[in-house]
Design a protein that fits this description.
Length: 360
């Protein structure tokens, strides 16, 4: 508690940081400066499931949950970074002074918590040529410069949609964002956030579309050694308006100009999916075009649902593409949503998902 009071005090003053190391070994509070050839980037949303991660592969953890000093100490003990989450309303940082103040606040927080950088997760709609587009690029540039100067070896990463083609109206300056950041985490999921054709349930990350997205980023001459492939450890559960020849028509839920979207469904973790498929109407099915598994089930009210997800079979060609395209690495949303219980079947399923990160 005293440490957090000190953080608040110094943040208000705009200087200094809490220097009370929470680790038993003080050297574990030093920033990680060693670079790994292959990046395994994990988003953590809180709790203690991180204790069951495959730490032999993890290189960076983005803390999207409550700060956990125990997680920090463990990550540093195995040479992995722990980085902040960074999100800000872009209209607020068009003004340079506001932008600088936001960055300073994040640096002070990172230093007070002995963290190793920041993951910029800004998924707002931005028009090409707008003040917000310019401000976003400047934010990435200034954040990188400030973090690198204040925290030696720190990492600044930026999350982007599965394609640079204004997905979800995110018309960012991807070339310069790629230039100024250390990593681009490509979120190769939620690829049905804008459905322009038939309003039907589809794969969260169909293989061909996913890989085309990387070709588009590379066509912009973005350094492939800065690109991290993001994969989903979750799927979508769609209530079917009707089900005809195994095609699940879904409710029309518009999103950023598109008439339909995956908002018609509900995100479900892999741990839930692995249990639900066993009591489904169909068992696991495979779509040979989208290269993804799915199944149908009936809920307690008699409603038919179709669930699309990823498992080792659909993830393997994506992980292999990381190697063949020479990308920097791979990561997932999110590390917490596997079943880390003592159940032998769950343990095997969880181990397979972690192992798939390194290719098949």
């Amino acid at each position: 508690m005293l440490c957090w009071i000190s953080v608040l005090f110094w943040t208000l003053l705009g200087a200094g940081s809490c220097d009370i190391c929470p680790c038993e070994r003080p050297e574990l509070c030093s920033p990680i400066q060693t670079e790994r050839d292959f990046e395994v980037f994990v988003f953590d949303v809180g709790g203690k499931t991180w204790k069951s991660y495959n730490w032999s592969t993890v290189t960076t953890v983005a803390a999207f949950g409550k700060y956990d000093p125990e997680l920090l100490c463990h990550a540093h003990s195995v040479g992995a970074r722990l980085v902040l989450k960074g999100d800000v309303h872009l209209a607020d940082i068009v003004d340079k002074n506001n932008r600088t103040a936001w960055i300073k606040e994040k640096v002070v927080l990172a230093k007070s918590q002995f963290m190793d950088g920041i993951n910029l997760d800004i998924e707002q709609a931005v028009e090409a040529g707008s003040p917000e587009q310019t401000a976003l690029t400047e934010l990435v540039k200034e954040t990188s410069e400030t973090f690198h100067s204040q925290i030696p070896g720190s990492q600044v990463s930026f999350d982007v949609a599965w394609s640079p083609n204004c997905i979800d109206k995110r018309c960012y300056d991807y070339i310069n964002i790629g230039k100024y950041s250390d990593l681009l985490f490509v979120m190769s999921y939620d690829e049905q956030s804008q459905i322009w054709g038939r309003c039907i349930a589809k794969a969260n990350a169909p293989l061909e579309q996913t890989l085309n997205g990387y070709d588009q980023f590379l066509a912009l001459n973005i350094d492939r050694k800065k690109i991290v492939m993001g994969i989903p450890w979750y799927g979508y559960d769609y209530p079917c308006v009707n089900l005809t020849q195994d095609i699940c028509s879904i409710e029309k839920v518009p999103f950023r100009g598109a008439p339909c979207s995956d908002a018609a469904g509900t995100q479900k973790p892999y741990s839930w999916i692995m249990k639900q498929v066993n009591v489904s109407l169909t068992g696991r099915l495979w779509d040979s075009k989208q290269k993804a598994p799915y199944f149908n089930y009936m809920d307690d009210n008699g409603q038919i649902h179709q669930v699309w997800y990823d498992d080792p079979e659909s993830l393997c060609p994506k992980a292999n593409a990381v190697m063949s395209k020479g990308l920097r690495g791979i990561g997932m949303w999110n590390g917490n949503i596997l079943d880390y219980s003592d159940n032998p079947v769950s343990q095997e399923q969880t181990a397979e998902m972690w192992n798939t990160l390194l290719g098949c």
